[in-house]
Design a protein that fits this description.
Layout lengths: L1 E3 L12 E2 L7 H11 L7 E3 L3 E5 L13 E7 L3 E14 L5 E13 L5 H12 L17 E5 L2 E5 L3 E2 L2 H10 L8 E6 L7 H13 L3 H12 L3 H12 L2
Parallel strand pairs: 6-11
Antiparallel strand pairs: 1-5, 2-10, 3-4, 4-5, 6-7, 7-9, 8-9
Helix pairs in contact: 4-5, 5-6
Length: 238
């Protein structure tokens, strides 16, 4: 079930707050730090019989509070949970590549989520704040993604308390915690099939790595910057 968010209505038992790493620009530092310690800054919370996962990034906390931004699961709806460590090679500027490392908690449900959740995540990615200032623009940071119709992943890189604490709390609520998995993806590997390439581009956009998606489009299709961004917008809207 997807619910709206107000901090007073979420009975937090365990709270995971975002730990800031390096910031990209000095201009954003003050704003990012202020938002990092607001009550809206949590990823998931545990109650006596259910958990809540907040799929809106703390960097977009200036978006309307009445928006749908939380998904709720009863513990008996969850089949398992586990830690995923990912290594990704993504395209960079001037034909170069970058290696990125991330950690995710994966939640597997007994039954498919249905279209409501996937549509909500897509809406969040497409949301724009027309009233925001230049500094308070939308941040392409999406901590929650769907791997398939029964599997949800939360990015817990730089999260405090850490993933071991989080998985330990889930164990207390009798959720099966599976062995850690390691995954790797090379987004720079050439693909001849257009549909596969488009799927790779969408995967980057869904996790908020729009910059790598733009580099990939430009390198693979030979497009200019503006054309590449337009191509990605049209592809994401399908």
């Amino acid at each position: 079930m997807i619910k709206g968010y107000t901090s007073e209505k979420v009975p937090l038992v365990a709270l995971l707050a975002v730990g800031l790493g390096g910031v990209l620009a000095v201009l954003l530092t003050t704003s990012m730090l202020r938002r990092a310690f607001q009550p809206t800054n949590w990823l998931f919370a545990l109650g006596p019989d259910r958990l809540w996962i907040k799929y809106r990034s703390y960097l977009n906390s200036h978006f309307p509070a009445e928006d749908l931004q939380i998904v709720e699961f009863r513990y008996d709806e969850i089949e398992s949970a586990g830690l995923i460590r990912r290594v990704e090679k993504v395209p960079g500027q001037k034909g170069r590549s970058t290696t990125k490392y991330s950690r995710h908690i994966e939640i597997v449900a007994h039954h498919p989520f249905g279209v409501e959740l996937s549509e909500a995540l897509q809406l969040e990615r497409s949301k724009k704040d027309s009233t925001a200032s230049r500094i308070k623009s939308q941040s392409a940071h999406y901590p929650v993604q769907l791997k398939d119709d029964k599997t949800l992943r939360m990015c817990v890189t730089d999260i405090r308390p850490g993933q071991k604490t989080a998985l330990g709390e889930l164990k207390i609520h009798r959720i099966a915690v599976v062995a850690e998995k390691r995954e790797s993806d090379d987004f720079t590997k050439p693909l001849k099939d257009k549909q596969e390439m488009e799927g790779r581009i969408v995967a980057l956009v869904e996790k908020g790595d729009t910059a790598s998606a733009v580099h990939l489009v430009r390198q693979h299709f030979g497009m200019g910057l503006t054309e590449a961004k337009q191509f990605i917008d049209e592809l994401s809207a399908r």
